[in-house]
Amino acid sequence: VATAWFNALSGTFPRGEAFFIQAVKAHRDGVSPALAEQIRAFIVQEVNHTREHVAFNRIASDAGYDMSHIDRHVEEQMALLDGRPAILDLASTMALEHYTAMMAHEFLSSPNHLRNADPEAAALWKWHAIEEIEHKAVAYDTWLHATRGWSRWKRWKVKSLMMLAITQKFIAHRINDTLHLLAQDGLAGPAVKWRLFVFLVASPGVLRRIFPDWVRYFLPGFHPWNKDDRALIARAEAELQARAG
Predict the structure, then answer these.
(1) What's the pLDDT tens digit per position in 58-70?
(2) pTM: predicted TM-score of the whole model, two decimal places
C-alpha cells in the first residue's frame, strides 16, 4: 500500500512541477530582488524534481506497473484549465505547494512514513521533501505580490475556495491512482480499500497528521513560514550525507 501511494504521488510530479513553474513565472514581474532570487531557485529545484521523478516513474514502469494512466489523467485535468485567468493557476499552485510542504514535513519528521522503503527510494523522497520545505513560501509570496491590489477579503476568499477545490480533487485522485496501482498487483476490493484508509488515516496516517496544518491555511495572517521547520532540513541533510559516506 505504501509503495502504491508513493508511486501514485510520483506519477503526478512531471506535469505538476511544470505547471507550478509556469504559474509562478507568469507573476514574477515587479517582485522584489529577494523574491526574484527565490523564484529562480524554485524553478531550478522544480526542474530537478521533474527530472528525478521521470526517472523514478520509469523504474516503476520497468518493474511492470502501468504509470501512463496517472500521467494521462493529469494531462486531461490540466487541459480543463486552459483559458482560465492566470491568477487562478497561481492560487492552485499555492494550495498544492502547501500540500507538498505538509507532506514533506511528515516524511522528514516521522520515520514511519518511509519505514522499510528501498534505501534509494527513501533518499529520493527525503531529498525532495527537503527542497519542498526550502521553497514552501515562494508561491505564496508570489501570490501576495500578484494580489497586492486586492482587498484582504477577496484574497482570502479566492485562496480558501481554491484550497477546498484542490483538496477534494487531490485526495480523490490520489486514492483512485493508488487503488489502480494496487489492482495491477491483483489487490482489489473492500479489504484493500480499508487497508489504504488505515494507511492514510491511522498508521502512519499522513492525511490525519497534516490536517491541523491544512486548517491553518484558512486562518487570517497565515504564512507558510509561521511554522518554521527548517531544523528538519538540517537533520535530513545530515542523514543523507552520512548515507553517502
Answers:
(1) 999 999 999 999 9
(2) 0.96
